[in-house]
Structures are given as C-alpha cells and as structure tokens.
TrEMBL record:
The keyword Transcription regulation does not apply. Pathway: Carbohydrate metabolism; galactose metabolism. It is an enzyme of class 5 (isomerase). Residues 5-327 form the NAD(P)-binding domain. Gene3D superfamilies: NAD(P)-binding Rossmann-like Domain, UDP-galactose 4-epimerase, domain 1. The keyword Thylakoid does not apply. PANTHER family: UDP-GLUCOSE 4-EPIMERASE. Its cofactor is NAD(+). Keywords: Carbohydrate metabolism, Isomerase, NAD. Belongs to the NAD(P)-dependent epimerase/dehydratase family. This is UDP-glucose 4-epimerase. It comes from the Bacteria.
C-alpha cells in the first residue's frame, strides 16, 4: 500500500502511529532529528512489527535537506506531521524556540510537496480552543487567543494549512485536534519517553511511583472544578494513533467536506489531575507522594471534547478507558526500569 512519511516518527505519538500504519498495510517512512526522542525506539518498533521502518535523520527546519529528501522519495503519498516542540510550560519560557521549530518545519514540508498531490494529516491540539466557553467543546467552537506560545503555533499552523489547501488543490489536509495523549503500547515496548524532567502529567506520575522522582506537584488546587485541580480529556495513545490511520484513509477516499477539515480526537470524558492520580493508584497499587502547589502559567482550567464528528465522519472512536491508560503507562515505566533506553 501507500508510503506514508511520518515526521517525528520515533517520538511518543509518532512511534505508535508507525506501528498502526504498518498494521493497516501502509509503509511508514520516518524522518526525525532525534532532538526529543531516541534511536533505540526504532529497535523497539521493529520488535513489535517484525520489520525495521525506513529512517532518515535530519532537521525539517533545513529547507535544502527537506527538498533533497522529497526529490529522492517521489512515491510518498501521505504525510503525518508530528515533528514539533510540544511542551506548554517550556514554550512560555522559550517562545522563539517554538515559533522557529514549529513553523519552519511545516512550511518547508509544504513547499517541498507543492507540485505533488499529497494527503496531509497535521498534529494539532485542543489548545486552539483556549479556555472554552462551553463544554464539551466542538470543532465549531471559536479559536481563542492562545494561552501559550505552543498553543499559538498550533493555531497559526492550522491557518497556514487551511489557506494552502484553499490555494492549491493538490493538498488534502486534516488537522487532528488532540486532547491529552497518555498510556503505552500493550507490548510495553514503546511509550512516552521524556528527556529530562517530564513536562506532562502521566510520566511524572509513573516516574514518581517507580522512584525516579521524589514527589509529584499538582499545579493548582483552587480552580473552579470538581476538586480544585485542572480537568483534561485523556486519550490512550494507541487510540490516537489509530485516528491518524483513519484520517489518511478518509483523505485517500475523498473527504466530502473538501480539502481541509478538522476533528477532535479524545474520549469526550474529563478527568481532573487528582482523579487521574487516584486512577493510577487504583490500577498500580502504588501510593503516590504528591503535593498541591501554585498554578502554572499557560494552563487551561478544564477542557474535554465533543467527539461525535470523529465518530460519524472520520469513522473513529476511542476504545480504551482510563484504567487501560494507567495500566499501560505503568507497564512501560516498569519495562524501562529493567531495560533503560537512552
């Protein structure tokens, strides 16, 4: 079947999507600069699917290298674009890093493929909704001023893609607005692998439980939510990976909504940080050492998605629940203790 370029394919979501593309009969080709991932993940993917995906290491912000790659791989039929800086908190501290990396990589890809018909799936985010007026948030909700530079890069990237698809019929684009990916592959061979101190909740939970971290800090306990902590729509990373396969398939079959479309990708259920901690403790049997600290700049109070459009038009629905998310993340953390990567 079709060759699909997966940028950031050794990263967390990218590696799981490479696996699901293979299972669906596609041939994934990975481009990654390994700035936020590890070469050993290729070995792990090979253990799962039985073949080693084609891999190219370079920075997508290098326009000449992107052009050379595209000219040497003329049979690519689709792109799933993950490669981007992604930590909300870091983006507040290092905004220029986020604007440079996230925009140049996208623009270079689009320019390199501008003469070729291409199906393009973009890794977007529910951060484009900002602090929603109503919940659950639908795809028709207004895009609000971003609460972080990371969120702003997703908003502007969606605008770039929509305008490019409008101007050039060869681009067929779907932007998937993720909620909060967590969990790991059922084999426990791939999962979230943060470099340094984790920026996301669940790896901090599992690292605290395994003893890598002394304690977990909950950022804010006085929000107007069920228990004072922020609320998020957590989605299992394998379900999220399958959504990308569904998006490629919809583009191949001709999306009736036209050359540009957006879909929420979540479970439609909101869990607070404290509820998520409790779910992990129940599944793992571990008691976590955590404290409630001050609020963190850039955090939205609560958001979860209306995913009915994804179910009806994308033909995709999340299948794995919060217990699956916690159990698989914990299995991955325990695997890493015995089999360190990096």
């Amino acid at each position: 079947m079709s060759k699909i370029l997966v940028t950031g394919g050794t990263g967390y979501i990218g590696s799981h999507t490479v696996v699901e593309l293979h299972h669906a009969g596609y041939t994934p080709i990975i481009v990654d600069d390994l700035s936020n991932s590890n070469m050993q993940i290729l070995d792990q993917i090979e253990k799962i699917i039985g073949v080693r995906p084609a891999f190219h290491q370079f920075d997508l912000c290098d326009a000449a290298k992107v052009a050379d790659f595209v000219n040497s791989n003329t049979d690519i039929k689709g792109i799933i674009h993950f490669a981007a800086s992604k930590a909300v908190g870091e983006s507040v501290i290092k905004p220029l890093k986020y604007y440079h990396n996230n925009f140049f990589s996208l623009i270079n890809l689009l320019q390199a493929f501008q003469e070729k018909p291409i199906n393009f799936v973009f890794s977007s985010s529910c951060t484009v909704y900002g602090e929603p007026d109503t919940l659950p948030v639908t795809e028709s909700a207004p895009v609000k001023k971003a609460t972080s530079p990371y969120g702003n890069t997703k908003q502007v990237a969606e605008e770039i893609l929509a305008e490019t698809a409008k101007a050039h019929d060869n681009y067929r684009v779907i932007a998937l607005r993720y909620f909060n990916p967590v969990g790991a592959h059922k084999s426990a061979l791939i999962g979230e692998l943060p470099l340094g101190v984790p920026q996301n909740l669940l790896p901090f939970i599992t690292q605290t439980a395994i003893g890598k971290r002394d304690k977990l800090t909950v950022f804010g306990g006085d929000y107007d939510t069920v228990d004072g902590s922020c609320v998020r729509d957590y989605i299992h990373v394998v379900d999220l990976a399958k959504a990308h396969v569904a998006a490629i398939q919809l583009l191949e079959n001709g999306n009736p909504n036209g050359n540009y479309d957006v879909f929420n990708v979540g479970t439609g259920i909101g869990y607070s940080v404290l509820q998520t901690i409790a779910a992990f403790e129940k599944v793992s049997g571990k008691r976590l050492n955590y404290e409630v600290g001050p609020r963190r700049d850039g955090d939205v109070v609560q958001v979860w998605g209306d995913v009915s459009k994804s179910s009806k038009e994308l033909g995709w629905t999340a299948e794995l629940g919060i217990d699956d998310m916690m159990a698989s993340a914990w299995a991955w953390e325990k695997y890493l203790k015995e089999n360190p990567i990096g």
